[in-house]
């Protein structure tokens, strides 16, 4: 599902803020809060949250897990009057013999039904096919008026916590979105100046496609962008860079195929060293992981792997753009190691 645009995020943020405000001061109606939360989650594309609110509003199906706030203690009142009623209860395996004893019960009813039961104070009958119907003479009656009140008291707290956390997430996300927008602009501008955007066609096609073959081609596009970037920025002759070392304590190789190392060497020559050493080592381990992902494209790649690779590519290029002058290195200057 596409990322919700700014206006939808703003609408959802306003809805969530209203829910938090109403529930915090005790003026919020639980049904209204659930419906509004469902709408907010839906327009954000948060499918898990939307499904939860849909179940709260419409009720839980026979095979659906019921959340903890709907687990209550109830009592059972048996109402058999004739032998056939007793036989029917035994066949249906109802809770016969527990008259007046507490039992654990899961409230699968719709939210409107729970509110109705609470407001009317009516008992609720158990029926194998139509739960929620009122008692017939031969059925058991589940008495959990206190349990319904407890569930209705719990739900606003659950909604409040969800809405509060979601609102905070959207607020922080807005700031992050602004930062990433500026970051993306700088990266794309540099790519355009370097003439590397031709590879973006394959990436764009892959991101918008449902075809695994296009995902693989997009991976190749990512690899080609990094290789071309390294080829333009690292113009030093020689197969190794003597100032950085691999895990075997040998100088790293900077041949044409070692484009990750070439970018690493370029950054090192541009003074990205010293205090940032540990950070850079972690960053370039991530670059090597990206290289592995690109290589794995030969055997197939998932959409999630492609998305991860695209984000990592931007981070790698952003490292170069924000820390250097983007002018090529022609010769090695040893300076301070």
Low-confidence stretches: 80-98, 127-139
Name the beta content range: 5-15%
State the share of residues found in helices, binned by percent: 55-70%
Shape: elongated
Widest β-sheet, arrangement of strands: 2-1-4-3
The N- and C-terminal alpha carbons lie at a distance of 48 Å
H/E element sequence: HHHEHEHEEHHHEEHHH
**What is the mean predicted local confidence, pLDDT?**
79
Short description:
Helix content is 59%, strand content 8%.
Please characterize this protein's 3D structure.
It is a single chain. A hairpin with a 5-residue loop joins β5 (240-245) and β6 (251-253). The strands form two sheets. A four-stranded antiparallel sheet has the order 2-1-4-3. A two-stranded antiparallel ribbon has the order 5-6. The longest helix has 50 residues, at 145-194. It contains eleven helices and six strands. Helices cover 59% and strands 8% of the residues. It is elongated. The protein is α+β, with helices and mostly antiparallel strands. 26% of the residues are buried.
Features:
single chain, 337 residues, alpha+beta, 4-stranded antiparallel beta sheet, 59% helix, 8% strand
Topology, please?
Blueprint: H1 6-24, H2 30-44, H3 47-58, E1 71-77, H4 83-92, E2 102-106, H5 111-120, E3 124-125, E4 141-143, H6 145-194, H7 200-208, H8 212-233, E5 240-245, E6 251-253, H9 259-269, H10 277-296, H11 303-323
Antiparallel strand pairs: 1-2, 1-4, 3-4, 5-6
Helix pairs in contact: 1-2, 1-6, 2-3, 2-6, 5-6, 6-11, 7-8, 8-9, 8-10, 8-11, 10-11
């Amino acid at each position: 599902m596409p990322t919700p645009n700014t206006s939808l995020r703003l609408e959802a943020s306003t809805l969530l803020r209203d829910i938090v405000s109403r529930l915090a001061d005790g003026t919020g109606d639980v049904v209204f809060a659930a419906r509004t939360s469902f709408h907010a989650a839906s327009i954000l594309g948060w499918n898990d949250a939307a499904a939860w609110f849909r179940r709260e509003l419409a009720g839980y199906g026979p095979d659906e897990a019921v959340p903890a706030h709907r687990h209550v203690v109830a009592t059972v009142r048996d109402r058999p009057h004739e032998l056939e009623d007793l036989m029917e209860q035994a066949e249906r395996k109802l809770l016969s013999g527990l008259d007046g004893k507490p039992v654990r019960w899961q409230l699968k009813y719709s939210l409107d039904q729970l509110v109705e039961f609470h407001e009317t104070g009516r008992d609720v009958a158990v029926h194998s096919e139509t739960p929620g119907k009122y008692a017939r003479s031969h059925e058991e009656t589940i008495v959990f008026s206190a349990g319904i009140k407890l569930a209705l008291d719990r739900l606003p707290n659950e909604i409040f916590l969800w809405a509060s956390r979601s609102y905070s997430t959207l607020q922080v996300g807005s700031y992050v979105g602004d930062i990433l927008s500026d970051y993306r602009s700088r990266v794309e501008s540099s790519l355009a100046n370097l003439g590397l955007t031709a590879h973006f066609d394959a990436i764009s096609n892959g991101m918008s496609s449902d075809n695994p073959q296009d995902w693989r081609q997009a991976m190749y596009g990512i690899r080609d962008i990094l290789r071309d970037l390294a080829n333009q920025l690292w113009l030093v002759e020689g197969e190794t860079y003597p100032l950085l070392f691999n895990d075997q304590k040998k100088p790293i190789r900077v041949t044409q195929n070692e484009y990750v190392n070439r970018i690493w060497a370029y950054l090192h020559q541009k003074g990205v060293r010293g205090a940032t050493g540990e950070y850079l080592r972690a960053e370039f381990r991530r670059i090597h992981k990206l290289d592995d992902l690109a290589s794995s494209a030969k055997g197939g790649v998932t959409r999630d792997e492609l998305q991860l690779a695209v984000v990592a590519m931007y981070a790698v290029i952003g490292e170069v753009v924000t820390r250097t002058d983007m002018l090529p290195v022609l010769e090695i200057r040893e300076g301070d190691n």
